[in-house]
Amino acid sequence: MEKIEDRLNRLEEKLDLILKILTEDIKDSCEKMGGHINFVEKVYDNVKHPLTFICNKVNYLTGKDKLNELEDKK
Prior knowledge:
This protein is an all-alpha fold. Helix content is about 80%, strand content about 0%. It is built from 1 helix and no strands.
């Protein structure tokens, strides 16, 4: 029969592993995702107005009178 102390030690090791994963691995992944989101937002801000201009010109040339406007992020 397994001793309670041995089981507690195994549980503590598992908890330590879970804490390591949460504090190191997931944190790094979240920081990378945050960087990617910032990059995409900057690209969107830079191309939003020129893209709207081009879409409106194409619509005008094809006979569509509706003007498009891309939404600002909120």
